[in-house]
């Protein structure tokens, strides 16, 4: 299985415990990634709903800091989670190559 397939499975599966035996060296990172993806989806939905309501009320998209102020905390959390997700994916890629590329 390629890294891309593993990452896809982590994103799509509700339970990833079956990956532990095959990928024990990256399993902790896979668990962390799963957690981050769930949080990211949660905050993305909040921001999407806010934008949808904002457009209905104001007849325009969110553009300025003032527009986003009511969900600023959620937006900052979402961007932080995105950065953490990228870091974990990079770590998974490095460790996958280190431990599993010769298999």
From TrEMBL:
InterPro entries linked: FAM13A_dom
FAM13A-like domain mapped to chain residues: 29-84
Highest taxon listed in the record's lineage: Eukaryota
Protein name: FAM13A-like domain-containing protein
């Amino acid at each position: 299985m390629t890294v891309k397939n593993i990452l896809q499975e982590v994103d799509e599966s509700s339970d990833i415990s079956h990956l532990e035996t095959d990928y024990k060296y990256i399993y902790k990172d896979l668990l962390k990634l799963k957690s981050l993806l769930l949080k990211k989806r949660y905050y993305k939905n909040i921001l999407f709903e806010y934008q949808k309501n904002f457009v209905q009320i104001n007849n325009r998209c969110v553009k300025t800091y003032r527009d986003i102020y009511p969900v600023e905390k959620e937006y900052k959390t979402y961007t932080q989670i995105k950065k953490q997700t990228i870091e974990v994916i990079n770590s998974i890629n490095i460790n996958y190559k280190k431990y599993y590329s010769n298999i």
